[in-house]
Amino acid sequence: MNLFHPCTPESLNENPFSLIGKDWMLITAGTDTHYNTMTASWGGVGVLWNKNVCFCFVRPQRHTLKFIEEQDRFTLSFFPDGYRDALTYCGRHSGRDVDKAKETGLTPHALSSDAMTFEEARLVLTCKKLYLQDMTPESFLDPALVAQHYPNKDFHKVFVAEIESVYTK
Predict the structure, then answer these.
(1) CATH number at residue 157
(2) How far apart are CA 101 and CA 133, in angstroms?
(3) How confident is the model at residue 2 (pLDDT cuts 50, 70, 90)?
(4) What share of the chain is helix, strand, coil (3-state, %, to 5)?
(5) pTM for this prediction
(6) Rounded CA gap, 3 and 167, in Å?
(7) Angle at 15 between CA 11 and CA 19, to 5 degrees
(8) What angle do CA 46, 100, 88 make, to 5 degrees?
(9) Number of structural domains, the chain?
(10) Pick from 77, 53, 29, 40: nearest CA to 161
(11) What phi and psi, each to the nearest 5 degrees, are found at residue 92?
């Protein structure tokens, strides 16, 4: 029996504002033998270049960034209620220092050799990178956002990725 069932992005009846901004997600990249994950609450989904896409924001100091940059794919994993502590832990601790799966009790699961998620996830998007852009202070039309969100000048890298597959339970 398969743990996850494939479906199409169009078949989802999820609210992306709740999924990402309220419930949070794990961005995971790497291989089935060497990966890292981080919690994110900024991002989105939509249609661009005639493709179903997601866009993710990753700060330069995040350990997961190296894994995203090294691979063609990453996953976005969404969890049922009851995983807030695990997601909080994955957002506050670095994979440089701890084994996040071990510390949170999450069970790593390879959808393929380059698409890692966790058995506890209820929804997983596998995403193929299409575009990368560094945010720059001069690109902000509202300078208050820079002052509010980037006091350390650690501007995010923006990834746009095609949603190649969607899995649900």
Answers:
(1) 2.30.110.10
(2) 29
(3) confident
(4) 25, 40, 35
(5) 0.96
(6) 9
(7) 110
(8) 60
(9) 1
(10) 53
(11) -100, -15
